[in-house]
């Protein structure tokens, strides 16, 4: 596949590069094998033998988004029940929904197919998923994501403790065996495929400390190391959750995860809102990444995530929607919310009202806000690096998988804005600019998304 037009990506945090009139070629395995300006000698040589797909003026290619935290079964009740604190919400909504899907495979198929369609509709090409405790239901999820063409990492929940007697695994050993079995079965499904087509993988998923015994956590740490598997969980998310762990285990959840060898470069921990800068520095040394979910944090955390501080000490951070603790499946909303929350934190710092427990005084002189360019990096390359995707993922470079979305901001023939974008001067003479990109970032929506590819293949929401 050969494409000619404007490309946009974030080579580093805070940097947005517009590559105007570039030629990009994708090989038969879905990797970029040529990238240069269309007037470059190599590009001209290629164009002599092949006609490219033309990205018209007013449109551009952007890497697909990465969602680092989404509860697939909770998509069923997205946008409801957000009036309760976390531990009550889990009992009243989450566990019931997950148990329902485990008992109704046809319902699970329906929910997951709709979820896949919505992810594609909103430009998400890679997603880290929490599932349910039943292996068969998670295999349905894995199959649906594979058939949709989404790069998906599926976690069967491990839970040997629960406040809901009907939604818990029978013992620690049974939970460990179920996790091992699911991982083996999930890997077997794609074992016969070429490596570049293995888009779906299993993830070790202790739900969070309150639902996992110390013995289960230790066993899952060993299983992850043995099979070199990714790990996901929740950490330091909400005040009631933190107090519950301290009361029951007499240590905080980060120490328990560390003792169980569950804080590794293969790990993504959601939230981490109660980690102060010194603890974030400790986390960075483990290589563990954080899924920042600003919307759900507003509902369930008593304080926001220290995003700027995490980035400053070298924590790898990506964005998550946290369906259904967050009600929007759109990573564009997660980008906007991450900036809004950081600006409120910065305002509190300037006015002298912000001093969270555990923060040192030297933090008072450091700007806490992030901007739209940094948020776009977190949604693309930052998320890809947090997920340990293939080299170059989340950007346009030779050797990277071609995971891309085509965004239209204005019509090439008329100059009219697309979707919610309005231009009161013809944008065509200037072409694609940083101001136009910022406008799309702020008020663009799914109407601007015209096509999407993962590993070089077109994928569709239909």
TrEMBL record:
Pfam families: Amidohydro_1. InterPro entries: Amidohydro-rel (IPR006680), Metal-dep_hydrolase_composite (IPR011059), Metal_Hydrolase (IPR032466), Metallo-dep_hydrolases (IPR051607). GO terms for cellular component: cytosol. Its cofactor is Zn(2+). Gene3D superfamilies: Metal-dependent hydrolases (3.20.20.140), Urease, subunit C, domain 1 (2.30.40.10). The keyword Repeat does not apply. Keywords: Hydrolase, Metal-binding, Zinc. One of its GO terms (biological process) is guanine metabolic process. Residues 60-407 form the Amidohydrolase-related domain. It comes from the Eukaryota. GO terms for molecular function: guanine deaminase activity; zinc ion binding. The keyword Methyltransferase does not apply. PANTHER family: GUANINE DEAMINASE (PTHR11271). This is Metallo-dependent hydrolase. It comes from Lentinus tigrinus ALCF2SS1-6.
